[in-house]
Amino acid sequence: MTSLLAVQKPHWKPDTAHGYHSHTIEFTAGELIYRVDLHHYTYGQFARDELDGEFYVDKSNDIVEARVSPVTRKEVDTSNVRSMELQTEKSFLCSGAFRLGRSLVIFNETRLHRAQMSTVNGITNARSLARIYYLLIGDINENGKKRKRLLSEKTIIEATKNVILTGERDQNCYNIPTTFRNGGFQIYGDCCNIFDDDVFGHFRKKYLRI
Prior knowledge:
Number of strands: 4
Helix content: 25-40%
Number of domains: 2
């Protein structure tokens, strides 16, 4: 996949527009980790070593699979759903890989659980998730073992800086304005106005501090 992305021609002139990469960001992020990490870890190996040993990406076995709650499909009224433009459809449906209306929920498949899709198929439990969230806030001492916070306050500040021009329309997301920081985290804007100014990556920082 990363080889295909590397030879992909830009859909627009660089630095003239932006687009929400809903399915490709995980492959590029994983490749970046693999190239800069001294051990050349995959994203899954890096996550288990640096984030939490109970957080699984790209590793699945019968024990892990038995604990995964299946994703269910909810029937909703789609008569008023805004039709997708071609670029939006290609992005959100991964050029047809995730087809709308299919009876099979692809996120329940073991083969997807074993894929390097860091943003959509992490498998863990409540304890592990709480530990990762808290490490975004500060250091922890669990069972006599101390761990340093994952992100410094300086990094948090950098993560919430907008690098998108005001009102610039997202080429991949219904051509509506969206806002992101340089590293790819989505931040507060008209598209996600349920957020607050002090937010990045689809999570409210003030909630993490509770």
